[in-house]
Amino acid sequence: MQQFDVVVIGAGAAGLFCAGVAGQRGLKVLLIDHAVKVAEKIRISGGGRCNFTNRDLDPRAPHKHYLGENPEFCRSALARYTPADFINLLQGAGIPWHEKHKGQLFCDRSADDVVQLLLRECAAGGVTHWQPCAVRAVRHVASLAGGTTYELDTERGPVQSHSLVVATGGLSIPKIGATDFGHRLARQFGLRVVTPRPALVPLTFDSSAWAPYAELAGLALPVKIEAEPPAAAPAPAPAPAGDTADGAPKRPRGKSQHTGMAFLEDLLFTHRGLSGPAVLQISSYWQEGTPLHIDLLPGQDIAAHLAEAKQQSRKLLSKELAHLLPTRLAETWTAQDPAWQRPVAETSDKALSALAERLRRWTLTPAGSEGYAKAEVTAGGVDTRELSSQTLEARAQAGLYFIGEVVDVTGWLGGYNFQWAWASAHACAMAL
Ligand code: FDA
C-alpha cells in the first residue's frame, strides 16, 4: 500500500493547482484523474484561449459575481488568492495575456499555456500524477496513531493518505470526463449536496413556438435580458434609473436567493432557441417555467423613433425598423402582425405603440436548456454549510476537502469560475 500525505482526485483547474501548491509546501502528493487527456476543460475554455480570471472581481462582495445558496461563502478564499496573484503566476512564467471587455483576461496564445504552467507547478512540487486512473472506492479508517486515514482502491492499486481533496468538478460536458463522483463521495460521508443543474447554458423553446425565429440562427445583437425573481423571494427593490454600464445587475440580490437579475450583453439566436453571453448569464438565474424579458433595443426610445419615421418616411415599417435592428430580425418581427406589414406612414399609432412595447419587453418562457452537454458549468454541488470557508475541509469529516466547481459556488461568465478554482485550491493547499 503506497502512502501519501494528500491524494487529490481530479486533475482539472482546481486539482492541478492544489496539488502543485501542496507539493511545493513539502507534502507528498498523489494526483489522480480518470480522463485520458489532462485538463481538457481548461484547454477548450474561452474559445481555446482560457479566460483565466476577471479583474472586476471584488472579493469583498462575492454575491456580485457568484451564486449559490450562500454566495458569501467564497469571500475568504477569493480574498486570500486574488486575480492579481494568478496574473503574477502567469507573468512569472512569461505567459502573455490580454484583457477583453468587462475585465476578462485571456491568454494571447492558447489555453495550453495555462495547462503546461500548472503541470510545471506540479512537477516542481514533486507531485505523483496518475492519469488515466480510475478510483473505485474510498474508505475512511482510523490510523494506529489515532489520526484519520483515507484508503483508496485505484486502477493502479491501493493507496493511503492523511488528507483527501476532491476536485472532480461539475457535470458539464460528460464527453470529456465530467462525472458526479464528487457529489456521490460527499453523500457517502453524509454531506448534503445542493441539487445540481446546468448553468451558463443556452436555452431552448418548443419547436412550434420557435419556428418563426429559427431562421434567425446565427444573428446576434446587444440586448438587456431579465429573469423573474423566484416566487418565494421578496419583491425586488425598485431599480435605479438607467442601466449600469458594465452589464451588472440593476438589483441587489438577497443572501441566498436572487430577486430578479438583468444583464446587458449580446444575444445569439440559435436553431433551437437563444444563446450568447446574455442568455448564458441569465440561465444561471432562470427558474424553469418562468419567463424571461428581453429589451431588444436597450436605452433607445423606440416609440419616439417610430413616431418620427411616421411623419417623414414612405417606406415599409420593416425597412424603418431595419435602421434600429438587423434587417432579418426587423423582417421577422414585423411579419408577426398584419398591422405591422404596411408603410410606416399608414401604420396606426396603436400598432406602432404595440410594436415599440413588444420590442422593449419581449416576454418568452424557455421550455428548457441544452443541458450538461452544452453547459459551461454546474450550479449546485456540495453544500457550503458542510465546509469551512477558510480551508474547504468538511466540518464533520476531518481530512476531507472539496474544491472548485464540485462545491455549490457558481461564477458568472467571464473568468469567475476559474478564479474560484484557483482560490479554493489555494486555500485548501495552504491548510493541508
Ligand atoms: P474541472 O472540470 O476543471 O476538473 C475536474 C477533473 O476531475 C477533470 O479532469 C475530470 O476528468 C476529473 N474527474 C471527474 N470525475 C472523475 C472521477 N470519477 N475520477 C477521477 N477524476 C475525475 N470558466 C472560466 O472561468 N473561464 C472560461 O473561459 C471558461 N470557459 C469554459 C468553456 C467551456 C466549454 C466549459 C465547459 C467550461 C468553461 N469554464 C470557464 C468553466 C471552467 O472550465 C470550470 O469552472 C473549471 O474547469 C472548474 O474547475 P474544476 O477543477 O473544479 O473542475
Q: What helical percentage do the residues reach? A: 25-40%
The helix tally amounts to 13
Please state the overall shape, judged from the principal axes of the Cα atoms. elongated
Number of strands: 21
Decide which structural class fits the backbone.
alpha+beta
User: The biggest beta sheet, please?
Assistant: 7 strands, mixed
Cα(first) to Cα(last) distance is: 21 Å
Radius of gyration: 25 Å
Note the beta-strand portion: 15-25%
Average pLDDT number? 92
Low-confidence stretches: 233-258
Question: Which hetero ligands occur in this complex?
Answer: dihydroflavine-adenine dinucleotide
Would you kindly provide a written description of the structure presented here, covering whatever features stand out?
The protein is built from 13 helices and 21 strands. Mean pLDDT is 92; it is low at 233-258. The two termini are 21 Å apart. It is an alpha+beta fold. β5 and β6 (104-107) form a beta hairpin. Strands 1, 2, 7, 8, 9, 10 and 20 form a 7-stranded mixed sheet that branches. It has a 7-stranded antiparallel sheet with strand order 17-16-13-14-15-12-18. A 3-stranded antiparallel sheet has the order 3-6-5. It is elongated, with a radius of gyration of 25 Å. α1 runs parallel beside α13 (416-431) and α9 runs antiparallel to α12. It has helices at residues 13-24, 40-44, 75-80, 83-92, 112-124, 181-188, 207-214, 276-283, 302-312, 317-321, 327-334, 349-360, 416-431, and strands at residues 2-9, 29-32, 51-54, 66-67, 97-99, 104-107, 128-130, 135-142, 148-154, 157-166, 193-199, 203-204, 220-227, 261-269, 273-275, 292-295, 362-364, 368-369, 377-382, 400-402, 410-411. The site of dihydroflavine-adenine dinucleotide has 39 residues, from α1, α2 and α13.
